[in-house]
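Figure-free illustration: sequence to structure, shown twice.
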Amino acid sequence: MLYFLSGFSDGGDIFNLFRYITFRSGGAFFTALILSLIFGGTFIRWLQRMQGNGQPIREDGPEGHRLTKTGTPTMGGILILGTMALSTLLWARWENTYIWVILMVACGYGLIGFADDILKVKRESSNGGLSARLRLLLGFTLAAVASVWVAQAHPPGLSGQLAVPIFKDALFFLGIIYFPFAMFVIVGAANAVNLTDGLDGLAIMPAMVASAALGIIAYAVGRIDFSEYLDVHYVPGTGEILVFTAALIGSGLGFLWYNAPPAAVFMGDTGSLALGGALGAVAICTKHEIVLAVVGGLFVMEALSVIIQVLYFKRTGRRVFLMAPIHHHFEKRGWSEPQIVIRFWIISLILALVGLATLKLR
C-alpha cells in the first residue's frame, strides 16, 4: 500500500525509496517484528484465558511433554499470520498477483489449522481435530485454486513448465500434469511443516530460513539482469515476493521470542499449516518447486520419517524409529530438547545454502 507514496517522488527525495523492493522488504520485516513484540504478550495472555488447559498434549508422545508442556496455549499462529499479512499488505504492491495468491494460500491454510486447533482444545484431545480426509480435501481445494491462479499469472512460455536445478534455464513441459504436481507441492509443504512442529522453536526457525532462501530466489528470478547473469528462467513480478518473505521472517522472529524454550505459546496447526502452505506457494510462483525440497529439506526429512514408520509398521509390525516424526526419535535416544532444536536449525541453514547454490551451479 505504501508503494503509492512513490508517486509523489520527483526521483531525488525520500518518497523515491518506496519504489525499491529491498526498502519495502526491510519495512515489512521491521513492521511484522515490532507488531509481534508489542502485541505478543497481550495476545498470549488472552489465549490463556480463553483456552484454560491449553493445547492437548499427544498421549503417546515423549513422557516429559505432559509434565513440561501441559497448559501452554496454542493457536499462536494467529499472531504470525496476522502480523505477516498486515505487514505484507502495508508494504507490497497490491497489483502484484503473486502476493495475493500467496496470502490466499497462507490465510486459507491458517483457517484450516484454526478450525483444527479449536476442535482439539474444545474436545481436550490431540486427536480431536478435523479428520485427516477433510483436512486434505480442503487443502487440495485451496492448492488447486492457487495453481490455476499462478498459471494464469505466469507468462505463456512458463505456464505448465517445470524448472530443474543445475540444468541452466531448462524447462520441462508437463502440461496438465503440472497442476496436480503444484497442488502436491503446496499440500506437502503445509503438512511437512505441521509434522515438524513438535518441539519449542523447532518449526519456526527452519521456516524462516527457507523463507529467506526463497525470497532471495524470488528477487533474483524477478529481475531480468540477475536471471540472465545466473542463467535461470526469468519470471516477471516475482521480485515483489521478497516483501512477503521478509514479513514472514519478521513475524517469525517476533513469535520465536515467545516460543523459545520453554515456550509461552505454541503456533498450533494455525501457524504450521499457514507457513508451510505459503512456502509451497512461493515455490510454484518462482518455478522453484524442486529447490523447495532442498531448502526445506528438514521438513521433507520429518515427513518421510512418518511415512516410512507407518508403511514399515503396517508391513512388518515393527518400527524403524523409536518414535516418529524423527525429532521424537532423538528425544527417545536421550537428546535434550535444546540439542535437537539447535542441531535441526543448523541442518536447515546448511540445506538453505545448498539450495541457494543451485542458482549459480547451472
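We now fold a second protein in the same way, so the two outputs can be compared directly.
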Amino acid sequence: MSFNLKNKKVLVVGLARSGVSAVRLLLREGAKITVTDTAGKDRLADAISRLKGLNISYELGSHNLETFLKSGLIVISPGVPYKSEYLLMAKEKGIPVISEIELAYHLLKAPIIGITGTNGKSTVTTLTGELIKAYKRNVFIGGNLGTALSDAVLSDKKWDAAVAEVSSFQLETIKDFRPKTAVLLNITPDHLDRYDSMDEYVWAKARIFENQVKDDFAILNADDAYTSDIIKNIKSDIILFSRLKSVERGVYIKGGDIVSNIGGKDAIVIKTDELGIKGVHNIENAMASIAAAQLAGCPVEFMRQALKRFAGLEHRLELVKIIDGVKYINDSKGTNVGAVVKSLEGFSEPVILIAGGLDKGGDFAPLKNLVKEKVKRLILIGKAKEKIADAVGGLTDTIFASSLEDAVNIASHKADKGDVVLLSPACASFDMFRNFEDRGRVFKEAVNRLTGSKAQEARVKVGI
C-alpha cells in the first residue's frame, strides 16, 4: 500500500481521540483533510478546539456520500462500523479504508508490541510497558488505551518500542499492520451488537497475526478455547502462557511460581502471591506481560520489582474502601460476561454483585454457577436488568435498583462484615453513563459518601 500522503485527499471519519491524532499526523505528512462525524459541532467542541487554526474542512452532523467517493484515502475511528454503507461504497470504488493504527504503523519506526483480547488489554499493555521501562528502555504506551498510536509518531522521542492496545474494531480494517510481537489474551463473547456472529468477532481479533512472518512473535493463552484453531493459521514464532498447565515454550505456573522457559530453561520470575495485581485473571495478565517483555529483550531479573509495584488500573478490580469490614470494589471495566466470570472466580468471600447496563448481545448463562456459588445478593440496574434476572436472578436474592447510587445504598445495608460489594456490570455503560470510567467514578463517589454502621442504620430507619 502506497503511503505518499503529500496532497492526497484524505477523509477522517469520526473525531474521537484517535481521529484528532490521525488528523494531526496526516497534516504533518502534507495531506488535504476533511473530517466527517455524525455528531454535531456542540458535541465535538473539545476535539475541534484541539485542531483550532489548522487547515481542515468539516462536515458534521451527517455524512455526505459524495465526499466519501471523492477521497483518495479514508481513515476511520474505532467506533465507526466497517460495514457502514458509505465505507462499503467507497471500497467498491477502490478507495482504501484503514484504521488509525494502520496509518500510524506505516510511519512509526519503532517495533510494535500489539495487545488484543476481550479482557485485560489495558492492564497488559500498561504492565508490559512498565516491565520494559524497568530495563531502562524508552517505551511508548498507548493505542486504544487512550493515547493514539499516531501520537507516538508525532512525538519527537526516539522509541525503543511501542506497546499498543489494539481493539477488534481497529483490526477490522488493517491492511499491512504487522506488530513485531502480537498478543491475544483471550476471547469471550462481546460486541455481538456489532458483529453478526462469534466467528466474525474471532476473525477480527485473530487479524492481529495476519501479516506476521516467521521472525515475529505470537503470544497466546493456552487455556483459551479458541487458541488451538487460531494457531493453525499463524506463521510467526508461537509463545504460550498458561495458568493451568506447563507449556513447551512460554510462561506458566509451577508450584506457586510464575516460570518462563522462553530463554531455553525454566526461570522463576515471581511468586503469584507477590504480584501487585490481584485476581485469577491478573495472573494470566502478568504472564502475558512477562512473555512480551522478555521477547523485547528485558531480562527476568529486571521484572520482579515492577511486578510487585504494579497495582493495576483504575476501574479494574479497584479496591475503593473498606467500611465496617465490607470491601467495596470497582470493576466498572467488567463490560462483558467473560470479565465478570474472571472477577468472581477470584473471590472466596461472599459477594454482593452490582450488575447491569446496556446489553451488548451477550449471553448471561455462563454466570449461573458462579452466581449460585459466590453471589450472596444480586443488585441489578440499567436496561439489561430484566434479561440478567431472567438468566440468573432465580439463583440468589435479586433486587432491582433505580440507579447505581441506589444500588450502593442497598448493598451497604444488606452487607455483613466480611462481604465484598462488587460493581462488575457485564454490560456497556451508555444507557446511564458516558463511559465505563464515568460509571466507575459514580460508584466510587457513592461509596465514599457511606460513613459506616450509623449511616446504614439511619438509611434503614427512613426506608432507603
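Summary for the second example: The longest helix spans residues 280-295.
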